[in-house]
Each structure stands twice: as C-alpha cells, then as structure tokens.
Write the structure tokens for this entry.
Amino acid sequence: MKKLFLAIALMMSVLSSQAQTKSVPNQTEESDEDKSLAKDYFSQIMGVAMSATSNVKLFQFVYDWVGTPYRLGGDTKRGIDCSGFAYQLYTKVFNTAIGNNSRNIFSTVNPVSKTDLKEGDLVFFKIHSRAITHVGVYIGNGKFAHASTSKGVMISYLADPYWTRYYYKGGRLLADAPQNN
C-alpha cells in the first residue's frame, strides 16, 4: 500500500511539472526537476541516498523488477534467477553484456573491496559452497538488489548476518567488457 501511495505521489508530481512545462515546444529530454523528483522518490522507497551522479535508470530498473518471482534459469518478469537479473540489468541499464551465470560474471570483473563498492558494482556470494553461487547488484548505502530463491527480486543489506556470512567479493566490470550496440 505504501509503495502504491508513493508511486501515485510521484506520478502526480511529475505530471504536474510536465503540465507546467507543456508550453515549451519540443521538450524531449527529462527536466532537472523531473530527475530530482525521481531521485527523491527512489531515495525514499529504496532507502538509498541518491547523489547528483546517481543513475536513475538503475533505480527505475530495480524498482520495476522488485517482487518478480524467482525461477532457476528464468530471465523474464514471469520468473528470474540471480544471474538473469544481473544480466538483464546490465543489458538494459548499462548497455553491456555480461555472463549468464554468477561464476562467468565474476570472471569479467575486477575485484573491489566492500568499502569501495559503487552503484552498479556486482556483489558475489558463496552460499553453502566453495564456488560462487549468487550475484547481486550494489545500489548504495550497503544495499544490493538481487533475485532471492525465497522472495524473488528484492533489496537486501550486505550487513545482514546471512549475507555477511556468505559474502565473497565485490566486482566492477572490466573496461574491455563487450558493449551491446
């Protein structure tokens, strides 16, 4: 219910600001005011303080997918797994192709310490295994988005005891990663 209220409030604010700027011909780019409203909205619903350099597209993508059920091997809103979610996010938000499973994805990153993680970095976990078994995308303030087997796409804290226990490494995509054109 709270999510619905916030979504309605944001839509009303955006529509109101668009109505005030309708008299400007050929306005095709999102205004600074609209970007600021979006950043305020995502900061509130995701509990992440967004800076002037924050990627609104990243937060919009995560917001759109939250609640999508988990499905091993899935890559659609009908069901998705952790690597499918990371793959879709990188394709749609960063126009970059990454691997199709958490271990393949890890092979395409430079390791990053937990304290140096930035929005869009990948976080890897070894859950009940010696091999990497889970991947998520860091969104800031110690939080990451991922597809959980129990709750589907969600936002979690790295500092949560469960995730702390299984955390392996953070990673930033290598500069020579393939771009989708």
